[in-house]
Amino acid sequence: MSEFNEKSDDTTQAGSYGAPDVGLVADSEDATQSSTTTGMGQEPVSLAFGMVHKDPLTVRPRRSSIVICACLGVAALILSACLWLFAVRTVTGQEYDDMVWSHFSQILPSWFIDVLSIFVKTYVDIAVVVVFSLVAVIVNVVRRRWLLLVQLAVFGMLCFAVAATVKRVLPRPFLVNVASYKSNSAPSGHTLMAAAGAVVLICAVPRVWRAVAALIGWAFTFLVALSVVQAQWHRPSDPIMSMLIVAGLAFIMLAFTRASGMDEPGTRMSSASIQIVATVMITAGIVAVLYGGYVFWQIEPGLDLSAQWARSGACAAAFALMLGVSLVTFGTVAALRQLTASPLSKLGLIGAPPEPPKPSEERND
């Protein structure tokens, strides 16, 4: 009705300025066509432009989604700091890390240790991360997601800076004699960069590939985390801390999603694959974390004496905690990426209004 009224008003206004005489119709035909083109062509274009920009969800996520991403990001970073304080600044934390560091290989089957030996090689990890990054760059360039490309570049540089500097800055006080080395080893640089590369891949691919990318990224990061503990490069708290840092930075990055970093209006829709995969990953991850915490609570009395009966439980708890944190991290990243990239609205689902017909088409009609 509003569009009809606007066109009616234009017609009435043109008539009020004075109708041309019959003898002047031929002389003023070009002017009439020009005026018709201006009145009938530009008005729907401006109307369509206004409809697109009146819906803020075409250029940014919902405010609630932005707040969720920011709050979860800060919470993940706080959890990583709390984990470091417990693992490094308490006697119980140092004893637990040292017990798992010394006996983790004993709970793993030999064939699985052979698999982990592949991912402990630095050049393999670098190669996989480079492949993830190249795929992300190519996809963004082809899809012209320039703002998303900038987001992911800044995110990657921040993760690299954390991996290169934080380990050297954080202290490790001497609280108890340990079998592992005395210097600080948190966070795990290998795990941090593996998780960062996986997050970049998840955020870069289109909607139909996000669930698959989340599973691939989780599997790669989890195997890297296990490999650095099994090879005694890191204590179990180190890769967990790395995954929490990456999760926090990724959630904060997603809070800044804008414009070309989102799915195009007209292509947005809910994703059954992401709903299923993210839900299963987050649920299974929470269960694994709770199980790991329960086992840790059971074996905690045996840590002071390095009791033999506590070793298998300590290692099982570490395995469950690394599994749970990795599942929650990538399940949540996939869910929040979908939430920020495809906020559902009427305009987002159907796209921009159709363009008005060309003047030649109007004359033919």
UniProtKB/TrEMBL annotation:
Q: Which domain of life is it from?
A: Bacteria
Domain Phosphatidic acid phosphatase type 2/haloperoxidase stretches: 146-258
State if Membrane is listed as a keyword: yes
A Pfam family this protein belongs to? PAP2
Renumbered to this chain, the Basic and acidic residues biased-composition regions fall at: 1-10
Write out the transmembrane intervals.
66-91, 111-139, 146-166, 186-205, 212-233, 239-256, 276-297, 309-336
Q: Which UniProt keywords apply?
A: Membrane, Transmembrane, Transmembrane helix
Q: Where is this region: Disordered?
A: 1-22
**Which InterPro entries is this protein grouped with?**
PAP2/HPO, PAP2/HPO_sf
According to UniProt, the name of this protein is Phosphatase PAP2 family protein
Q: Which organism is it from?
A: Bifidobacterium fermentum
